[in-house]
Design brief:
It is built from five helices and 29 strands. The protein has 395 residues and is α+β, with helices and mostly antiparallel strands. It folds into four domains: 101 residues, Sandwich (Immunoglobulin-like); 87 residues, Immunoglobulin-like (Sandwich), CATH 2.60.40.10; 101 residues, Sandwich (Immunoglobulin-like); 57 residues, no CATH class. A five-stranded mixed β-sheet has the order 2-8-7-4-5, with helices on one face.
Length: 395
């Protein structure tokens, strides 16, 4: 209950102070495993621009355990094994770091964090107070260092392919005899800095502009003291040698500067080097940008144009549908009110052979107008008039 209340207090303090950066947990000695009875000190390292005092909080397996910058274990117990994190009143919660407290005769120790470019040292240690001999190291169950007196295995300049399972065996004396014991661990080599990316400013470039290329990467907070160097290339040709500057300036860009650019990042000891993908600078002639901006302004200056076009289209569609429905209703009503005798000739004149002379049929416009008005007001009466009506034929 008390732990939960303290945790809530921590969250409130952090919320009010605002997050700055994530701290990192470091071990001294820098080992992921220790024997029972051994000592170890943990430190919460954090960068902060705040001037006031910083409050520290330690957590083990998500439970609050301590409130100082350092947390010490004087004589380790098996119960001290777990995942440790720290947090401050001016930071986020750190990543967890695992500690194993081992109660056996042999343990294989590695650093808590291994990064590309490191010189990795694996220690096959036996329990203090006992004698030992003949140590063997394995990688993925293959022997890499045979029977010897050395307790350590050194691997220089590790890379991502060095991530694998390691094992050691050692003969330890206890109960007056030597017995062979073993331990194993998995080493995960982490990325020292991220793959760089290159960006340009401004995005839209016209000849004569001042253009800045920037090479971006992220260095691991566990290796914040590592010095990085940057270089720039155009069409594969170096245009700025490696230095601490991660930018390249083109004070007065020309059309001929429309090329592909990339950058490289390396450590100061030259062990790790990574290149970015290319970015293309497209330089426009003077006046092209103004024309583009004018066209863009003309479109954006009439925000209601698209809505007007949509309204006209919808109105036209509704009108067409109305006319189609009206025509269908007219045909339906015409069929519904037609008489059985409509198919029979209504007068003899309709089947008389026309004379050789041209017939002109005149329809009284006033009559037709009245008929349509009558139809729209009283369809049944209009149909009766239609059935009994005779054509007026003038020869």
């Amino acid at each position: 209950m008390i732990g939960s209340s303290l945790l809530m207090l921590v969250l409130l303090i952090v919320e009010n102070a605002g997050s700055v950066v994530s701290p990192v947990v470091t071990f001294n000695p820098d080992l992921n495993k220790i024997f029972t009875g051994q000592s170890l000190q943990m430190t919460c390292d954090v960068d902060s621009t705040l001037q006031e005092d910083i409050t520290y909080f330690w957590f083990k397996n998500d439970n609050w355990i301590h409130s100082e910058k350092t947390f010490s274990i004087a004589s380790a117990l098996s119960s001290d094994s777990g995942n440790y994190q720290c947090q401050t009143s001016a930071s986020d919660l750190s990543d967890s770091t695992r500690l194993e407290v081992y109660n056996g005769y042999v343990t294989l120790q590695t650093p808590t964090n291994v990064y590309e470019g490191d010189n990795l040292i694996l220690r096959c240690q036996h329990y203090p107070g006992h004698s030992a001999k003949q140590t063997i190291f394995y990688r993925n169950n293959a022997v890499i260092q045979d029977w010897g007196s050395e307790n350590e295995l050194h691997i220089e300049n590790v890379n991502m392919t060095s991530s694998c399972k390691y094992k050691c065996t050692k003969q330890v004396n206890h109960h007056l005899l030597y017995y062979q014991h073993s331990d194993e661990t998995s080493v995960s080599v982490q990325e020292l800095f991220s793959l760089p990316t290159i960006t340009q400013s401004p995005q839209l470039v016209t000849e004569g502009d001042h253009v800045t290329l920037t090479c971006h990467t992220r260095l691991s907070p566990h290796r914040k003291t590592t010095v990085l160097q940057f270089a720039f290339y155009r069409e594969g040709q170096n245009i700025q040698e490696f230095s601490s500057a991660n930018t390249y300036e083109i004070p007065f860009v020309k059309l001929s500067d429309s090329r592909d650019y990339k950058c490289e990042v390396q450590t100061s000891d030259y062990r790790i080097k990574k290149a970015s993908t290319t970015t293309t600078i497209q330089v426009n002639r003077i006046g092209e940008r103004e024309l583009f901006n004018q066209s863009e302004t003309e479109v954006t200056s009439k925000p209601g144009t698209s809505h007007v076009i949509t309204a006209v289209a919808v109105t036209s569609l509704v009108l067409v549908l109305f006319l189609i429905i009206t025509a269908l209703m007219f045909l339906y009503r015409t069929k519904q009110f037609s008489l059985p005798g409509d198919n029979k000739p209504s007068s003899k004149a309709e089947f008389e052979e026309p004379n050789d002379e041209t017939e002109n049929i005149y329809t009284d416009l006033n009559t037709n107008t009245a008929r349509w008005q009558s139809f729209s007001q009283n369809p049944q009466e209009a149909m009766k008039d239609h059935v009994t009506e005779n054509h007026y034929i003038v020869c």
